[in-house]
Every structure is written in structure tokens, then in C-alpha cells.
Amino acid sequence: MIESRDPITSELLGQVPEMDAGQVASAIARSREASRSWSQLSIDKRCQQMRLAADTMLDSADEIVDLICRETGKTRVDAWTSELLVTAELIDYYLKHAGRVLAPRRVTSGTLKTKRASKHYAPLGVVGVISPWNYPFSLTMTPVVTALFAGNTVVLKPSEVTPMVGLAAARIFEATAYPDIVQVVTGGSSTGRCLVAGGVDKIVFTGSVSTGRLVAIAAAETLTPVLLELGGKDPMIVCEDADLDRAANAAVWGAFTNAGQTCISVERVYAVASVYEDFVKRVAAKAARVRPGKQVGSMTFPPQLDVVKRQIDDAVRKGAKVLLGGERPAGLSEMFFEPTVLVDVDHTMSIMTEETFGPVLCIMKVADDAEALAAANDSPYGLSASVFTRSSERRDRLVRGLAAGSVCVNDCLVNYAIPSLPFGGVKKSGIGRAHGPEGLYELSMVKAVAEDVTGLSSDPLWFPPRRVFEALTRRFIQARYRTKPGARLAGLLSGHQSRNAADRGLTTLPGTRATAARASDDAASRGS
Q1: Residue 336 shares a structural domain with residue 378
Q2: Which residues, including other chains, have CB under 8 Å from residue 92's CB and lie 6 or more apart?
């Protein structure tokens, strides 16, 4: 059995079993059976059922928030905004737009005017979801509700650190007329491996890069596609024309909200030299007013505290200065960590190159925008980034240049809260996208449909071959696809000449002056 405990009080919240391969296989089988009816529902009928689930979630919202806070150590504000509000927004967005996004869509048939072409979106089948502990409700509900809207059923493995929230999320869907559409398997890494290898139609994993790599390797054995939302080391660029008060407020909130346990936390700031000192002073003053246990909750996973402390110690040994924090606060649970600001940092320090996932903000001085951009991109991660500037030209240049899946301008973290925007990373930060139309497409199968509209008993391309059709096709290709309009008439003539050459049994090679037949005759005349 796996115990779930309040990270602040150590109170036992519940126990869940470590499920084995047989139990996981049974859950997948039940999900497969449920998909037979769920996948056949129209999108309108699925939306009706999802409305029931949304109402159930809102009816029990207070209980869900209480459980989130007890199992993670979050503040109630964090739980309401980043867990419940974000989830409600996403469901509302798909209720309004999933029908349009997933509707069959006519596409051009090109020159084949006698054909009707369209794209149709169908469910994949059973989607396996492995969700994380840092946002155990919203990062569970996002892939689950997206999969359900797309017509799939789900087998969910919540994090073994926060299994009770995962169970609560799954119970929401029992209010529908199809209570088996979400199955839950509990356990740690061995249970996750069983799910990945269990024959689901896609795996959605949210977590660390190291574990995501193992998921991808295991999924490759069965050619199971994956959607991976992995770690980040998100940079903020503060330009010389930035609103420094807004930039400082954003940096403090972006670094310390949810105790820094956010994949898109602001973990490193590159401030241009001309505003660096002023920016640092503002950050220090604002960060000093952020109180652990009041504005900032505890950390959730004990091993993560060791990562944070190790990175800070490494940075200090290499010359960094702790401007604020750096320790566990007195009088609070050992799972709290002070909001910490570091300066005099550089990329020789692990705290500037590895994901921290704690309440730490690093500020580095750079000469100009170009150096800031180069430093921001000097990372194996590419999840999100932010830019602070008043210049539209500078904004556009930096947005284009940043190697990140999302960029916020004069803001941070807000991109995840906008359900119409796709969310995902580049480089080691992941594969695929959640949210928006892209999220539905990720969990759908697109079918290409081509239909004849003539009603004729035969097509020109069908047997028996027609010599005249070959000649017409040759002329059409030459006239239709030449890129210079003036060359199209020449293309028609070229097609005619090619036809004459073919009639004589000759093959003209582009760029040569002699035909293959003429070259052969020349060789014969030389006695070769």
C-alpha cells in the first residue's frame, strides 16, 4: 500500500494499492469496453455528458480544494486559481468549440475536380494518462477531459505522491451516464510501466525529463505514440525600456507561486546592464514581503528540497550571492523553503542550467538584448519564456528568436491559463501540445476521405489505358506547374515535343545535349 500524507502535518490522508500488471490489464480492458459506446456518441452528446461532469466538479469544488491543499501544501488561492479555475476554463472552452474543431472538414482536391476531399476526426481508443504531483488536479484533468471530448476513454495513473486528488478527479466522471470512461490505476513507477506497455492507444505523460525519456523508450517497444509535457528552465528577459515595476512583480510571482513547483516558473532572469541594479533592488524589496505559510505554500515532495538546497550550495561555491532567503524558515514545517533570490550567477552553475522546481529566482546581468537572447536559448529546455519591453520591434524580434513553445510579453505563466492557446515545449521540454484545437487533434485520429462525385462507371486513369490521356496529362503538367507564367506556353510545346520524342523511342535527359539513343549510336560507330 502507498500512503498519502499531508506534507505540512504528516497526517495520513489515505492509502492506495500498488497495482500490478494484471490489475492494470483489467483496467485497460474495462476502458476498452467502455469505449465501444463512448466513441460512438456524437460530439454533441459527449458534450452533454461533460456538462454533467463539470457540474459535479463545481458542486464539490470546496472539498476538492481542501484535498488539494492537504495533499500538496498549496495555499487555497493557488488551489482555486491554478487547479479549479484553469480546469473549469478548459472544459468551458471545449464545450463551446470541440464540435467545430472535430467536425468533418472539406479540403481542396486540387486539380481533381471530380473528387470531394475531406478530413474526419475519430477517437484513438484508450488513452493512458500519467499525471504529476505539482498540479495534481489541473494537470490530471487537462489530458483526461481532452481525451474524453475527443471520444476516447482513459486509464489514469495519478502520481503516487498525490493519489487522493487523482481519485477525486476520476470520481467526477461517475456522474455521467458512462461511469467507466475513466479508470484509475494507482502505484509508482512499476504501475506506470505496466500502463505504458499495456496496449493503450496513446500515452500522455507529464513529469520530469528523465522519466519522460523512459516512458518514450518503453512506448517505442510497442510503437505506442506519446504526448510528453516535461520540464522547463524558463527565462525572463528584462530589456532597457521595460516597465521595471511590472517586471519585478512578475518575476517574484512567477518564481514563487506554488513554491516554484511549476514547469513554467520563472527560474532565471536576464536583465540588461543599464537597468540591472534598479531591477534587482525592486525584486529584493518585493520578494521580502512574500511570506512562506501565507502567500506561498509548502513544497510537496521531500526529495525536491534536497535538489533546491544542492543547487543553491553549488551556486554559492562558484561565486553567487544569496540576496534573500536560502534556508528553511524557522517555526514552520520542514517542507517550507524561504523565497530565495540569487545574483552574480552564470551558466557554470547548475542552478542556471538544471530545473530547480523550488522557490528560487536567479538574476543575471547581460550587456544587451542579443546577449540576453543567447543566454536564454543556452538551455536544453524550451517550454516557456517571457519578455519585458515597451518596444513592439524589440518584442517581435525576441519572440521570434526565443526557442520556446510559449512566450509571454510583459507577463508570465498566463499562457497556460488561456485554453485556446496550445501548450507544450521544444527541445527536451516535450513532444506534442495540450489545450486549444491542437490538444484535441493530439488525441484524435485524422482520416482522409476522398469521394467521387461524377457517378461515371469508370475513370480515365482506370484500365484499359488510354493513349490520348497520357498525352493530355503530359501537356497539362507542363502548362499547369511551371512557375513562370511566360513559360507555360513553352511548357505546352515542350510537352508536345516530348511526346514526339517518346513516339520515336528516345529519352531526353535534362541537362544533356544528346538523347540516350543518339549516344548509343555514337558508341556503336566507334566500335565500343
Answers
A1: yes
A2: 54, 419
Please, are residues 201 and 124 in contact by the beta-carbon 8 Å criterion? yes
Provide CB contacts within 8 A for 296, sequence distance 6+: 75, 256, 257, 259, 290, 339, 359
Write the DSSP symbol of residue 419: T
* Three cell numbers written together for 160: 503516487
* Same structural domain, 310 and 330: yes
Cβ–Cβ under 8 Å, residues 274 and 238: no
89 catalytically annotated? no
Whether residue 245 sits in one domain with residue 208: no
d(CA 481, CA 417): 46
Strand partners, 204: 129, 227
The residues that bridge with 451 in the sheet, in sequence order, are 116
CA angle 405, 409, 413 (to 5 degrees): 60
| Statement to judge: residues 329 and 407 lie in one domain | yes
Instruction: Select the more confidently predicted residue: 338 or 509.
Output: 338
Neighbour count for residue 112 (Cβ, 10 Å): 12
Q: Per-residue pLDDT tens for 449-492? A: 999 999 999 988 888 877 778 888 888 888 888 888 777 777 66
> The CATH number of the domain where 344 resides is what?
3.40.309.10
Q: Say which of 47, 194, 263, 362 is annotated catalytic.
A: 263
407 forms bridges with which residues in the sheet?
Answer: 385
Q: Is 3 a catalytic residue?
A: no
Identify the active-site residue in 71, 83, 229, 355: 229
How confident is the model over 15-73, as pLDDT tens digits? 999 999 999 999 999 999 999 999 999 999 999 999 999 999 999 999 999 999 999 99
What is the count of structural domains for the chain?
A: 3
Residues 6 or more apart whose CB falls under 8 angstroms from that of 4 comprise: 12, 13, 14, 15, 16, 71, 161, 162, 163, 164
Local structure of 79: helix, strand or coil:
helix
174 φ, ψ (degrees, to nearest 5): -70, -15
